[in-house]
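Q: Convert this sequence to structure tokens.
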Amino acid sequence: MGQKIQAVKGMNDLLPVEQRDFKLTSAFWQAFEETVARCTKRYAYQQIRTPILEQTGLFVRSIGEETDVVGKEMYTFADSNDKLSLSLRPEGTASCLRAVVEHNLLYNGPQKLWYMGPMFRRERPQKGRYRQFHQFGAEALGFEGPDIDAEIIAMCADLWRELGILEHLTLEINSLGNKEERAAHRAALVEYLTGFVDQLDEDSRRRLHTNPLRVLDTKNPALQQMCDAAPRLIDYLGEESRAHYAGFKAFLDGLGIVYTENPRLVRGLDYYNLTVFEWTTDKLGAQATVCGGGRYNGLIEELGGKPAPAIGFALGIERLLLLVQEYGCLKADDKPDIYAMQQGEGAALQLMKYAGLLRAAGWNVAQHAGSQSLKAQMKKADASGARFALILAQDELATGRVTLKDMAKGQQATVSADELLTTLQQWKNQ
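A:
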């Protein structure tokens, strides 16, 4: 027997049953995907699917060379044929916008797009955070006003409501202003933080001259008082940025969406400007952020397209589903409606025909395979969780009839083949 080969550390199999260290099941995951598809369709978003492998330069230009994602966490390698540097995508926005620019999707007007799929970052695996993880994200491209900022928040709120977790999430918002306003604030912030350089931890000292806004996002309790007194970006915003932010808040207020203003909210990627937001929870320990996003009005141009405003968000599915499993109302039902069993010569083929008829009418049918006693088959029917059992033995086969059993109510009847569908529907509606 050959030696077992195990999955790569931090990359999980998604099985029909719970695992010891990974409780999500494929049925629960599929129920979430179906919920997302319904929600995005209601807001007229269309799905886009991009490759998991991209040129490394895409992420250097979009995310930023000095970020932890690009500098430490990407899986990068040289293509053996043409020597291109390639990377497994660490997030979805850059790939989505690369496709939009490459295929000129904005030529005929704004686009609302959503995506879902695996992303890859080489970080320390922990509960809800893995090296292969999955994101759901949405991007509204070509829309300039604060109304679309509010609408994308409303779509998130609708999703949380449908998943049953809205009451466990808090919306935090901020404005990062434009490039010039951020530059003025950055200079003041670097000057301020330099006075505390001896107090900064290793991560904060490294970020001081590469991404000083991230210093304010530190989770180190010893630095909180210093961060609270730091220059605030909102004080550097000009009239246009302030008007956009005020308009955004007015829409949220009008929609009845509760939010908290967090002047230290900066997000982790370099491309954000103006509106930024996060949905956070206190139910997942240190992993507070469930969903985050904001505006990135300059990114499409940076990737070679014509200048266009844009806003989007992304969420880690694994982390979100931990919250949904514990507190939400999402139901994962992978049980068949009917367990079909047979016994005797010629019964298997006829049972397949009946099962095909039922499936064509929208019923989910698990058909027993092989030859076992009806008693043994009935035990499997019970274990399957199916509400109904269909039995085809020699007596039924000879008379063109079938026996139906409602295993939830103990009701049983033998009916003709022509009565099969109507009887099941009547029992289902009782």
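The chain has a mean pLDDT of 90.
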